[in-house]
Q: What sequence folds into this?
């Protein structure tokens, strides 16, 4: 449509905007308001308490840990997913036999329903019955293996690995797609100039994919920060809060303990923290751009 | 055309009511026990009820346990509750406090339904602030100690010895050999109610309590701390990974012969009967000379205040808890004592023994805030199982419980 | 850019590719293996990669009438969502890329920001709205919810794609006398096909596995979708692994099949869309 078709622009945009306004902003505003009231299942009549809920949240012993866990979880999963996704995209971009099949197979984990993937991994990590310990033991690493999800020092790492496995294939496909667009001539010229593979990667491939990488970081950050199924099934946030993140805490407060006001408060705080994380990316990207120019 | 269609639908909607007398449809939600063919018996019972009560139809929805709590909650919050449902004993206080379920005192008195007909712990769990809000439906006890007879024989241990604290510990020690994949006792401490139920039963058996008469935390009493310290001494004899293990995980190890003792309610018996394991059981564990006291579990039937069919709902509840019906519609143990006796004789090994444990058991705190108390107790269990000082862990838990506001 | 590697590095790369294959497939292999284990056979220690007496009995149990109902529900809900989301997103993304109006840009930003809202925090208010609209326990409630949550990402994906199409094309058509609708349907739409496929596959995969809304908005068995239906195998105290894994295999097959068929277009669509972001 051209600039003159103003009315049409509005008509095309309205359904989407209306839907998101009614189904997401309206409930979200409701959640913000709810967080200012002390409501729970057992106190159904809302009582205005101002910011008391937030005071309680910030003062609670778990809060710091949940913020920390959420950030570690998000950053680790996002970083590993993207790195692993990028490397496997480079690999799948080579002309190798069986590659067409590989390109399809690689999406299997992403296609598997989240709850199923989580149950599968909980079982893989089982200290006695799981495949992982049985491999480690037969490979000679001790005679009992580790209790991956039951130990506060390994639980988060184990959850991250499972989430990376589930999510990296999407990054692979995105990067594989982006690699198709790297200018052939530029690469050829560099090759003739004698630039090695690493140099070409650094000076031609990465810069040309910069935008895709940033967008993909943001998208995976949002998805990971709000990713509930994996941790809920693996550990429910345990042991001893070692893997509790915002979505699991919100669910536990709201649906597990009927504390709606606090759950709403945690929901609002979680959006703020996610927005901060994303702002950080933009800042990093901006300073990167300045440094480059 | 549109008008015609409208008229047709209106007509279709009106006819049944016009011809038959007012037909009421009751929405009944129940926990779906996946381990048995219960739903079939339940359907038969529903048919029987509908035959006895023309004019009332029952629409049964069975809901898998992991989602039942959320479904009920969203339904009540959204003004969409069923007419009748089962609720876990530990949810009932909150539902009563929230004003979601009806007070059944008057109806129960009129119908002659009283405490005598039911297990005491079950009846208590149906009462809140001196009023009756539900009728006990089914019960069970955490925990029975199920044992692998072959492993006990091989080690030369008398199975009866595990009914004392000392005996259980000695047996567990002897039965454990991690290098061979053999473990003495199946402790579990994941975030789940089974963790709390077992913790409580050790506390009860040692003479302790979770809350005292005034509703204050009693976990710092010497009896409670003693039980926690005792549990801690069992940790080396349990399979690795207690903090994320559930009773379900321990069952798998018991079934493949790696675990000598597992803690489960009597509900475990049908599974074991189907397995190749040669098993037996003891009624929990207590210090020498004391009787083991288990933790009550089970479900009550409640009527929602929002239901427009209070009388029909009450009729249905009476029916389900009747002596001749109760046994056919539960897979735990009927809460009706007479029905329980018949049920246990027919379906469980060691009926008298189970009966004793049922009569000695104690309910978990009957508080509207129970779910929060339970969460704090899970943390306590995890602290204890990971080696924290039991006294300090209990003090921390009590500070949290007494700080609930 | 696609590269033909030298012979020496080729062997190394093949090895890497094999490694990647193992990483991806091993958990699946284990899933299939557990699904073939007879219920009466206990789990072995150490874990066995393949059951001693493989059987299809779990599949027979898993493929019960309920499963077929859940399957139909999932198909209806997912496909409707895909169609509606892609249509609405296409319209919105088109407007967004072809306008300089500030108000529209702000609106779009707000739509995209909505992606950040955690579902568990807004689900009870949405539930109440569904109840008020008398939509609970219907396909419509799920489709409405899924369209809303997938719309921002879909707009985002299509926006990048549409931005690449030269406006000159439309201007030329306009000079030839084509109206805006004609331009949209006859020129833009055909050019967008790869982007549409990519977005559709994305929306389909996300919707096919959604759990929380499906759990909250449906109550009766005949309205449940596949991911929620998996709970049938999870009891209060134990999991029936064999049947659960058999159902998992059954639930994954259709999406994998669709992806196999559309793989080429999916990658091509992302290519174009991803570049402009």
A:
């Amino acid at each position: 449509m051209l600039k003159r078709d103003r009315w049409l622009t509005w008509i095309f945009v309205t359904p989407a905007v209306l839907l998101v306004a009614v189904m997401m902003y309206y409930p979200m505003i409701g959640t913000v308001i709810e967080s200012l009231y002390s409501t729970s299942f057992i106190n159904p009549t809302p009582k205005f308490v101002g910011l008391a809920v937030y005071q309680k949240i910030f003062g609670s012993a778990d809060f710091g840990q949940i913020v920390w866990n959420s950030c570690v979880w998000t950053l680790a999963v996002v970083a590993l997913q993207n790195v692993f996704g990028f490397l496997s995209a480079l690999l799948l971009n080579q002309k190798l036999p069986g590659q067409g099949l590989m390109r399809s197979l690689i999406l299997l984990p992403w296609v598997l329903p989240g709850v199923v993937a989580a149950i599968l991994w909980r079982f893989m990590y089982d200290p006695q019955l799981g495949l992982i310990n049985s491999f480690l033991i037969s490979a000679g690493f001790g005679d009992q293996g580790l209790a991956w999800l039951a130990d506060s020092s390994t639980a988060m790492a184990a959850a991250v690995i499972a989430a990376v496995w589930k999510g990296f294939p999407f990054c692979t496909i995105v990067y594989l797609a982006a690699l198709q667009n790297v200018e052939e001539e530029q690469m050829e010229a560099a090759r003739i100039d004698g630039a090695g593979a690493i140099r070409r990667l650094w000076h031609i491939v990465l810069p040309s994919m910069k935008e895709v990488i940033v967008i993909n970081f943001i998208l995976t950050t949002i998805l990971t920060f709000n990713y509930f199924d994996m941790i809920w099934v693996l550990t429910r946030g345990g042991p001893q809060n070692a893997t509790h993140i915002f979505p699991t805490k919100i669910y536990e407060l709201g649906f597990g303990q009927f504390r709606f006001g606090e759950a709403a408060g945690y929901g609002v705080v979680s959006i703020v923290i996610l927005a901060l994380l994303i702002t950080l990316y933009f800042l990093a990207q901006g300073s990167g751009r300045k440094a480059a120019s | 055309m549109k008008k015609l269609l409208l008229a047709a639908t209106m007509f279709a909607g009106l006819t049944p009511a016009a011809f038959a007398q007012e037909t009421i449809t009751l929405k009944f939600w129940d926990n779906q026990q996946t381990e048995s063919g219960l739903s079939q018996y339940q359907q038969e019972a529903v048919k029987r009820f509908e035959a006895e009560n023309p004019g009332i139809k029952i629409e049964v929805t069975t809901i898998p346990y992991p989602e039942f709590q959320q479904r009920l909650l969203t339904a009540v919050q959204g003004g969409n509750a069923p007419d009748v449902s089962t609720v876990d004993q530990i949810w009932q206080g909150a539902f009563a406090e929230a004003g979601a379920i009806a007070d059944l005192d008057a109806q129960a008195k009129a119908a002659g339904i009283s405490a005598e007909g039911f297990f005491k712990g079950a009846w208590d769990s149906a009462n809140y602030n001196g009023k009756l809000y539900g009728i006990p439906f089914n019960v069970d006890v955490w925990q029975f100690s199920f044992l692998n007879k072959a492993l006990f024989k091989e080690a030369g241990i008398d199975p009866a010895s595990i009914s004392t604290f000392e005996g259980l510990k000695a047996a567990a020690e002897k039965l454990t050999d991690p290098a061979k994949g053999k473990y003495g006792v199946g402790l579990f401490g994941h975030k789940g109610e089974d963790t709390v139920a077992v913790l409580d039963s050790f506390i009860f058996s040692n003479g302790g309590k979770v809350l005292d008469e005034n509703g204050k935390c009693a976990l710092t009493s010497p009896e409670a701390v003693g039980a926690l310290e005792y549990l801690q001494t069992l940790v080396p004899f349990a399979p690795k990974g207690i903090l994320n293990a559930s009773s379900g995980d321990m069952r798998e190890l018991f079934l493949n012969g790696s675990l000598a003792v597992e803690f489960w309610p009597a509900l475990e018996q049908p599974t074991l009967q189907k397995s190749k394991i040669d098993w037996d059981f003891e009624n929990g564990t207590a210090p020498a000379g004391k009787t083991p006291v288990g933790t009550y579990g089970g479900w009550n039937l409640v009527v929602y205040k929002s239901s427009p069919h209070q009388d029909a709902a009450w009729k249905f509840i009476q029916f389900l808890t009747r002596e001749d019906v109760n046994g056919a519609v539960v897979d735990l143990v009927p809460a009706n004592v007479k029905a329980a006796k018949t049920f246990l004789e027919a379906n469980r090994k060691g009926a008298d023994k189970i009966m004793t444990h049922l009569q000695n058991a104690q309910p978990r705190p009957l508080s509207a805030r129970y779910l929060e108390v339970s969460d704090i107790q899970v943390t306590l269990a995890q602290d204890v199982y990971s080696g924290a000082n039991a006294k300090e862990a209990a003090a921390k838990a009590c500070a949290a419980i007494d700080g609930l506001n | 850019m696609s590269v033909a590697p030298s012979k020496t590095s080729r062997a190394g790369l093949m090895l890497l590719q094999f490694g990647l294959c193992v990483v991806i497939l091993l958990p699946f292999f284990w899933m299939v293996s557990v699904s073939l284990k007879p219920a009466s056979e206990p789990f072995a220690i150490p874990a066995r990669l393949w059951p001693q007496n493989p059987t299809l009995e779990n599949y027979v149990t898993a493929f019960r009438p309920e499963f077929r109902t859940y399957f139909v529900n999932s198909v209806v809900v997912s496909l409707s969502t895909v169609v509606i989301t892609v249509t609405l997103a296409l319209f919105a993304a088109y407007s967004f890329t072809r306008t300089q109006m500030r108000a529209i840009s702000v609106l779009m930003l707000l739509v995209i920001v909505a992606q950040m809202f955690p579902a568990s925090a807004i689900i009870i208010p949405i539930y109440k709205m569904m109840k008020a609209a008398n939509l609970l326990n219907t396909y419509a409630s799920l489709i409405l919810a899924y369209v809303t949550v997938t719309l921002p990402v879909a707009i985002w994906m299509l926006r990048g794609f549409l931005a690449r199409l030269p406006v000159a094309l439309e201007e030329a058509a306009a000079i030839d006398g084509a109206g805006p609708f004609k331009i949209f349907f006859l020129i833009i739409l055909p050019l967008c096909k790869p982007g549409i496929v990519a977005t559709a596959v994305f929306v389909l995969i996300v919707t096919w596995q959604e759990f929380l809304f499906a759990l909250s908005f449906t109550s009766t068995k005949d309205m449940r979708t596949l991911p929620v239906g998996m709970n049938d195998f999870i009891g209060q105290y134990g999991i029936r692994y064999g049947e659960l894994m058999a159902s998992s295999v059954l639930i994954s097959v259709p999406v994998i099949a669709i992806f196999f068929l559309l793989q080429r277009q999916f990658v091509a669509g992302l290519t174009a869309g991803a570049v402009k972001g």
Summary: The CA atoms of residues 197 and 262 of chain C lie 8 Å apart. The radius of gyration of chain C is 23 Å.
